[in-house]
Write a structure and sequence with these properties.
Elements (H helix, E strand, L loop, with lengths): L2 H19 L3 H10 L1 H9 L8 H18 L8 H19 L7 H21 L5 H8 L3 H11 L8 E2 L6 E2 H4 L6 H15 L4 H12 L4 H8 L3 H18 L1
Antiparallel strand pairs: 1-2
Amino acid sequence: MPITEEKQKGEKNLELIRKAKNGDKNAMEELISENIGLVKNIARRFFGRGVEYEDIVQIGSIGMIKAAKSFDESYNTVFSTYAVPLIIGEIRRFLRDDGIIKVSRDVRKKGSVILHAKEEFEKEHQREPKISELAAICGYSEEEIVYALDASSPVSSLQESIGNGDNSATIEEMTASDSNEIESVIDNIALREAISHLNETQQKIVHLRFFKELSQQQTADILGLTQVKISREEKKIFALLRKEL
């Protein structure tokens, strides 16, 4: 989109937001109409999870309404950039809380207990536990362990790593893509937002490993850590980003 056209769209969005905040329902409807392309592009990322595409678009529109109501011009950012995380968040909440697949509180609680036991086991033994070992630790049957872990597993992110060390790649890199420029921007905004929720050390690891493309050992040397520590932190980072993305 040419700069002048983009600027005009930004100014129109601001005008509509001001009117909508003053109770102008027509302005809110026009704002949604003007930006429905953004919502649809985001909705496509969540298609195929048991919910109709149009329903996802409607839920995404709710996120845009919330973004319009909470948008502050002093943020010094364009509305679309501000709206993306809220639209994504609204869709995720719907799929998690109101989607077709329901996970009972009991299963969620078991999943939490199992994941905690799994993390403690990995710290102590430096490897992932077997299902039988988790069953013995938690006092659940192996079937309960498998079901609870599966129900508690987050949806895989396009940024999830496949493989080990320097030979690893992301799902996005291994999958053919026909996404357009808008979808690329959406992905970048969502990823940047997710990375901002990591702690300082984890953000440095992401920067060195995936933006500077350094090896785990090079990253470890710069941060004064061991290669094993970097590897463990990467696993934590991927788990956190999966939840966010």
